[in-house]
Design brief:
With 282 residues, this protein is mainly beta. It has 4 helices and 25 strands. The strands form 8 sheets. The chain has a 6-stranded antiparallel β-sheet, sandwiched between helices. The chain has a 5-stranded antiparallel β-sheet with strand order 8-7-6-3-9, with no helix packed on it. A 3-stranded antiparallel β-sheet has the order 13-10-17, with no helix packed on it. A hairpin with a 4-residue loop joins strand 15 and strand 16.
Length: 282
């Protein structure tokens, strides 16, 4: 069964590829547009204060099914997430990316000069169509300049996704976030795995089902190891070793390392025992 946040269908409108599978008043072919803002929210409702479900990063593609009152409704080509995006954050045509940001965040400069004005911060996994190189800077999608030491080829895979995740230690907790300025538990998992060349879905419930199909489910009482993913209802974390877990969480309102036993004790106190443990490798 497709998760509702991955189904681009409403009673009045659905994506053309769903014709015959869902009921809707009309069906539309998606129009691909590229995220030209440094980062933008995918919201539940078409309002500036609408709840942020997730984020889409610079250079990613958003498939637009409807444009109305300055808002686009559609889905992310990156992970399929459905929602509303501010049209001001999108542009066309789409330029295929060649690189992605490997730093936690890096400035998008107006000129190939570290003293120039900046357009904002690009977060890890932002997608870049690398153009002209001037000194230590690379033109990014024709919209600014990025320090070349903070870029890697699009197909580059970090060797240890746990080490990537550790770089987010202390990052504030933000529901729907997936960057070092604010992220949630599943955002941390998705972001760090993407940096290691492993594309996964966005939300905890999506990830738990997907991981059970793609990776190895282990017994919750078995000895744990670095890189094991522990799921609770609505929460997920990454094991650093047999005893400690790294997770973005609302208890501390930041990304922390703590004994798994403490996390589990709190969760059980809220009637939320461990639901599964997944081993990504080995």
């Amino acid at each position: 069964m497709t998760h509702k946040n991955l189904l681009p269908a409403r009673g009045d409108l659905a994506a053309a590829h769903l014709k015959g599978r869902v009921q809707a008043d009309r069906f539309a072919e998606p129009v691909d547009m590229q995220v030209s803002a440094c980062v933008t929210a995918i919201r539940r409702d078409p309002r500036d204060d609408g709840a942020m479900e997730t984020q889409t990063l610079f250079g990613e593609v958003f498939a637009v099914l409807e444009e109305k009152d300055g808002w686009a409704w559609g889905f992310s080509r990156h992970d399929g997430y459905v929602g509303f995006v501010d049209m001001a954050a999108l542009s066309a045509p789409v330029t295929p990316p060649t690189h992605r940001v490997s730093a936690l965040r890096t400035y998008l400069f107006s000129e190939p000069d570290l003293k120039s004005a900046t357009h904002g911060l690009l977060s890890m996994n932002a997608k870049i169509a690398a153009g002209e190189t001037r000194g230590r800077f690379v033109s990014a999608n024709g919209r600014g300049w990025v320090f070349d030491g903070h870029l890697v080829p699009l197909d580059h895979a970090a060797p240890d996704f746990v080490a990537v995740a550790e770089r987010f230690l202390g990052a504030p907790y933000q529901w729907g976030g997936k960057e070092s300025l604010g992220l949630d538990c599943s955002g941390l998992v998705q972001t760090s795995l993407e940096a290691a060349g492993i594309a996964v879905l966005r939300d905890t419930s999506m990830q738990e089902g997907e991981f059970a199909e793609r990776f190895t489910v282990i017994d919750a009482d078995a000895p744990l190891q670095r890189g094991d993913i522990v799921f609770w209802a609505g929460h997920v974390g990454i094991m650093l070793d047999a005893a400690r877990i790294l997770h973005a969480n609302a208890h501390f309102m930041e990304t922390v390392i703590e004994p798994l036993s403490e996390t589990t004790r709190r969760a059980v106190g809220h009637d939320s025992p461990v639901t599964s443990v997944i081993r990504i490798s080995g």
